[in-house]
Each structure stands twice: as structure tokens, then as C-alpha cells.
Amino acid sequence: MDDERDGVRLTSLDAPLGDGLEVTKGDLVDYLDAFADRLVPQLAGRPLSVMRVRPGQAPFMQRNVSKGAPDWVRTVAVWSWGAHREVHQVLCDDRRTLLWLANQRAVEFHVPFTRIGEEQPSGLVIDLDPPVDAGFDLVVRAAELVRATLDAGTGGRLLLRAAELNSGVAQADYQAMADRGREALLSAGHTDAAASGVIASAHQDRAQARELTKSVLDEARADAAITPLTPLAQREAMRRRVARLRAQRTHVLSARLRARRHSVALRALRYRMLHHRGTGLAGLRLPLPNGRAGIAVRAALSRLGRPYVWGATGPNQFDCSGLVQWAYAQAGIHLDRTTYQQIHDGIPVPRSQVRPGDLVFPHAGHVQMAIGNNLVVEAPYSGASVRISPLGSNVQIRRPI
């Protein structure tokens, strides 16, 4: 059954609204139309997000206006931080837009507290949730106390604080914090996935080593069951025993090397988890990744936790000069090999003008790379790993060019 109201064509009004709902689409249209004079003033001028239902599928949230919307449906362009793009949200400014949304099976309407073109919120919602074992009368009592507080004038300061939090600067700060939180969660997820991969690989290596050892033992038991009677048979048995010992030695050395690699990978992950929380990295402003210094700094930081090995130049183990040489090589810049040569690379820079990517020399035999916030990344000494350290006070600084 179809109908038309206020110039809006309404379709399939006798169809079920959604799975498990004992109402029709027409019931929803009638309900929203009956309250249009109260709903529209609250929705007008506010970017709208709606929850929609359809038979045969789960309810879904929609921010962007549907394709094929009538020309008279007003929209506003809003930046979506989640989708990292601009979306066009509906403005429900009149009855026919509300009817059109009802025909789209919109059952929930979500709006911000600010209208388009305004910075201050027009309202405040206080969410009162009772404890699990308490009755709703506790919520009523809490609401009465809130109302008394607002009536007494204290609520004015509360509303003013809410307005301040809704300002453009506060929203930008909140968004920056949310982005950092999202990055931290993604980083933790990547770390968990990487650790799971290392552990799974270690289990696979162990199973493979067990199979190889079992095959060697089976051959040894088979040989032991046969007594060689002739000198030629004895010489052949000895040859097989030597071959088995050599094979087993190869298996052990290979397994030890793989285990060492797994240990290095886990140490690197552990270092990142422990040190990325308290060293100021959360607020670190790295140079742009399209610049040479930015590429070098990011390359060096990607090696955190890798072991120091004298004379090593990467990519999985380094000495101090090998780390900065490798990092700058990722940016297409050649540095000399040793610290004693690198201390003459580039141009000298006073400590007060140090910036990320500069080479820092606490003494002639050691080099670090500045990363900002008075921090450096370095491969310090034998037995240690690539790490982040404070920038020293008595240092020489060179800037590669």
C-alpha cells in the first residue's frame, strides 16, 4: 500500500518494519507524523545521523544522505574523522523531510547539541544510570537533586563549562586525544599480532626440530639393531653414524639461530611496549615524512629494540654509526661509515637549534640521532639494544645536507 503526504511519496506502508518488530512501516510513518510539530524544532539545523532498519538485515547507522534523495532535502557537508572524508548529513528542517526519513525506515535520530553556524550548545544531557541492584526511584531522586542544583544557580557554571568544552579549540584538542588513543590501540593490536606471529613461528620451529631429531634417532636405533660383521660393514656403519652426528649438529645450530631471531623480535616488541608510554613519544612532533630528515628519523625509530653489534650496519643489528648511516640511506642520503668520519659530515649546528634528524655526538666515538623533545635514538653499546635516550648537554651536533 502506497500513499502521499505533503508531496512525499510513501511506499509499502503495509510491509513489516523490520525483523522481530510487530509494527508496519505505516505505523512508523504515522507515529513520526503525529509528533512532527515537536520533533522538527528539535532536529532543525542539526546534522542528522539515523539508525535504519530493513527486513532481512541488521539495523545500521547512516550519516551520509541516501543516494537518490529529493532535491528539496537539505544537507550540510561535515568532516568525518572516522571515515577520513567529507560526508553530507541531512538537515530535518520540516515535516516533509521527516516523512521522507520515515519512508527510509529511520527509527532513531541522533543530533549534536550545536546547530549549523553556532558554536555554543543549545542543551545539556545528564545521563543518570542506577546501580544494577537499585530501583528506578534512585534515578528519580538523582534527577530531583540535579534539578535543584540547576535551579540554585550552580548549574549556570556547569552549562558554561559545557559550552567551553564544545568550542572549536576544545573539540580540536579532544579530536587530537582521540586520534592518539586510536593510534595507541592500533599499535597495541599490531604488537599483539606480531607477538602472536613470533610465538607461532617458534612453535612451528620446535615441531620441525622434534621431527628432525626423531628421524635421526630412528636411524640410530635401526643401525643399533644390526651388528656389522665385516670390516666394510663396520666402516659403513661408522660413516652413517658420523653423517647423523653432523646432521644433528646442523639441526641444533639452525634451531639456535632461529630461536635467537625470535628472542630478538620479542625483545623489540617488549621495548616498544615499555618505552613508548613514558618517554614523551605520545606528543612527539616528528618532521614531515616526505622530508629527508623525517624519513631518516622514522627509519631509525623503526629499529627500536634491535641489538647492538659492533661493525653491524643493519637492518636487524647495528653499531651506533651503522644505525644513523642505515637510517639516512632510507632517505637516499649517503653518510660516511664510522663515527670519526660522520663527525665531519654536514654542517655544525648549535645545541639550541637542534632539530629531528641532526647527528648528535656526546663524544668523538659515539653518534646519536635527534628525534625532538630533547630526545635521541641510538645504538648505545654491546649488550644493549637500539633505544631512546635524553639529549645530553655537552654535545656536538651536525646536520646532514
Compact summary:
The protein has 401 residues and is α+β, with helices and mostly antiparallel strands.
Top keywords for this entry?
401 residues; 5-stranded antiparallel β-sheet; 6-stranded antiparallel β-sheet; 10 helices; extended; single chain
In words, what does this structure look like?
The protein is of the alpha+beta class and 401 residues long. Helix content is 45%, strand content 16%. It has ten helices and 13 strands. The chain has helices spanning 25-34, 36-43, 95-103, 137-151, 154-165, 168-224, 231-275, 292-301, 320-329, 339-342; strands at residues 3-5, 8-10, 47-54, 57-62, 75-80, 85-91, 106-110, 347-348, 359-363, 366-372, 375-378, 387-390, 396-399. A six-stranded antiparallel sheet has the order 8-13-9-10-11-12. Strands 3, 4, 5, 6 and 7 form a five-stranded antiparallel sheet that branches. A two-stranded antiparallel sheet has the order 1-2. Helix 1 (25-34) runs antiparallel to helix 3 and helix 6 (168-224) runs antiparallel to helix 7 (231-275). The longest helix is centred in the middle third of the chain and has 57 residues, at 168-224. The radius of gyration is 34 Å and the shape is extended. The protein starts with a strand and ends with a strand. 16% of the residues are buried. Mean pLDDT is 84; it is low at 277-283.
